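We close this part of the discussion by returning to an individual protein. The amino acid sequence and the backbone structure tokens for this protein are reproduced below:
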Amino acid sequence: MVISAPSGAGKTTICRELLKNHKNFRMSISATTRPKSKSERQGRDYFFLSNRDFETKIKKGWFVEWAKVYDHYYGTPIEQLEKKLAQKKVVLFDIDIQGSQSIKKSYPDAVTIFILPPSIPALKQRLRSRRRDSMVEIDKRLAHALKEIEMRTKYDYTVINKDLNLAVSQVESILEAESLKTSRNAANNFGMLIGG
């Protein structure tokens, strides 16, 4: 399941709630070249790589998808993804639009969900309240958000994150409906995974 959203719309928080609610869900851990924050751990939050290491891994085909976002590389290691899928886990992706399209191309059964903020002013307020970015960076993220929102029609579903509990419930409803599709049940018993 791929979840994308403009920065500040709440996709990471929604993913955390889904992981708490479902023991068979696993987060796809991306690799990145951005600096590690104090609270982040290598291999838990991201695989932190140098630009050189990342570019070498691109050439070696190490990623199922990768992109450069806000001057840093991000990518999904194929090996980690395949390992989780082999264990019959529901794998959550918290990635951008370009990454989502790459995942959908490689895994056509992937469910893609775009998370919208309730409004642009609400998104601006959320970005300000995080107190992580300068006003210049916030304006840059908002301009990028408007472009991302235009791409929401490329997703299977759209959820508006006005209320976190409702947004999580809607994502869970989407997954339940997807698990009941005849094509999924006939192909891979996906329906058996949602229950836990």
Observations:
- The helical segments are 11-21, 51-59, 78-86, 97-106, 120-130, 135-150, 164-179, 182-188.
- The chain has a mean pLDDT of 88.
